[in-house]
Amino acid sequence: MKRTNSHLYIIIAFVIAQIAWLGLLALWIYWYVTNYIVFEQVGEKLSPLIDIQTPNVFVFTAGIILIVGIAVVMFIFFRNLSVQYKLTNLYDNFIATVTHELKSPLSSLRLFLETMAYKNVSEEKRKDFLSLMMKDVKRLDNLINTILEISKLEQKKIVHDRREYKAGILFEELVNESILNLSVPEGVVSYECSSVSYCSADKKALQIVIDNLISNALKYSKEAPTINVSVKDNRKKIIIDISDNGIGIPQQYQKKIFNKFFRIDSVNMPNVKGTGLGLYWTKEIIKQHKGSISVHSNGLNKGSTFRIELPALKNKG
């Protein structure tokens, strides 16, 4: 209710500002026309030699500057209002999504616990229940940790443990660790490397990046997923490409998907859940490494390639 009232106040303020602007414009036009007539009449009576154009030009120029200034202010105001409105909607969607993501495993845990408490459950069934409960607990833990870590990252409370690594060896280890973390079937992920450069990196932070990207590639694949990770050198940069054969990303969303809370509501994958934080977190970690991340996709069902660019260390390799 408070949020709705806040929106209403902003809209009312904007409408009042528009009315004030139009009123001021009308007054200026009235003042200009009135004074122009007065100047003209006085000039005709006093002397035909009086140059009445100078004050009129000055008044006209001042009025134009005033109108342009007001228009610029109103444009900035309207743009900020639009951005704030979009952020509010994204925040509301995020709250709704997180609430669902928290409630779903909690409901599942409650159901399993009640079943085990009030019914005779075989030992085999009990083990199955415990296994499922552990998955739900892990899911909750991952969600809460993600939110906390992003908060720390934004507040610059995280101190990265930077060390020098040979890029090819580092990313091979990260990919292999992701395969274990995500229980990826054998043969789904391939790795190739031609890089001989070194980089300064926080291995744990980059593990989060690779986990997120490979996890997304798995989630957004309709058919048997195929993921390729390649590492190569390009002048003073190390290029890491993570390509998949998934559902692809429409052109209009390719820059937005790294925004906080942003999610694509895909009819092709309606059961895929998320908070819109994973790629934002990924981007922030890469920025901390003085690198960049981008995505390219030729469209629907044509896969995607996420490209990470990291600076190579000088006099290395």
UniProtKB/TrEMBL annotation:
Signal peptide: none annotated. The keyword Transmembrane applies. SMART domains: HATPase_c, HisKA. Pfam families: HATPase_c, HisKA. This is histidine kinase. It comes from Melioribacter roseus (strain DSM 23840 / JCM 17771 / VKM B-2668 / P3M-2). Its EC number is 2.7.13.3. It catalyses: ATP + protein L-histidine = ADP + protein N-phospho-L-histidine. GO terms for cellular component: plasma membrane. GO terms for biological process: cellular response to phosphate starvation.
